[in-house]
């Protein structure tokens, strides 16, 4: 029977996450992952099976610990939840927080060469996008009960697209990311209303 690992798995995953987030899967070298995690290559392979296994653990932890934590309040009956969600992301991007400057780890993975070659990554990113759209749709329904279900669906699709665009732009153009996210509350308020 093999020895049990004598390291904190979540701390290793967090350290590897920062490398993958900064460099992307393909560009993250195993030596860089060894340095960041404090583990030798053999320990990484023993615990995670491969560099790809470590990346999968990183994406899973990010989805559970970051994405779902932020999405959870959406659709909980608070009509201001979507604005709060967007404000939280905007504040992090505006503060030039290192991780916010890197954009969304899952969206980055979805636009990387790995996603074009790997059905599992495509499925994970697609499932994430569907989960985000569903949460935003619930929040739009709470915010705009005056709209028909079809109008809520259409508005939610636009808001979700704006969020994805803002998170994608965060890596390259902070001002454009902030302007895109700032359009979500305006879109929420003005959708379907005609000028008097």
Automatic annotation (TrEMBL):
Q: Does the keyword Transport apply?
A: no
Q: Specify the HTH tetR-type domain's residue ranges.
A: 6-66
Q: Which GO terms describe its molecular function?
A: DNA binding
Q: Which UniProt keywords apply?
A: DNA-binding, Transcription, Transcription regulation
Q: Which domain of life is it from?
A: Bacteria
| The keyword Transcription is annotated on this UniProt entry | yes
DNA-binding region coordinates: 29-48
What is this protein's name? TetR/AcrR family transcriptional regulator
This chain's source organism reads Microbacterium testaceum
């Amino acid at each position: 029977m093999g020895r049990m690992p004598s390291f904190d798995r979540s701390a290793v995953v967090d350290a590897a996450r920062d490398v993958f987030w900064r460099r992307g899967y393909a560009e993250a070298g195993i030596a860089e992952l060894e340095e960041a995690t404090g583990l030798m290559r053999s320990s990484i392979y023993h615990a995670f099976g491969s560099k790809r296994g470590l990346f999968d653990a990183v994406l899973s932890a990010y989805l559970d610990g970051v994405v779902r934590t932020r999405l959870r309040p959406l659709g909980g009956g608070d009509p201001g939840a979507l604005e709060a969600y967007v404000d939280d992301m905007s504040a992090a991007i505006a503060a030039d927080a290192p991780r916010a400057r890197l954009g969304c780890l899952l969206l980055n993975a979805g636009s990387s060469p790995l996603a074009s070659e790997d059905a599992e990554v495509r499925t994970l990113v697609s499932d994430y996008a569907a989960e985000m759209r569903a949460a935003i749709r619930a929040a739009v329904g709470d915010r705009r009960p005056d709209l028909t279900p079809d109008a809520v669906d259409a508005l939610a699709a636009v808001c979700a697209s704006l969020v994805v665009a803002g998170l994608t732009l965060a890596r390259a153009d902070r001002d454009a990311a902030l302007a895109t996210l700032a359009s979500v509350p305006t879109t929420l308020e003005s959708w379907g209303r005609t000028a008097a």
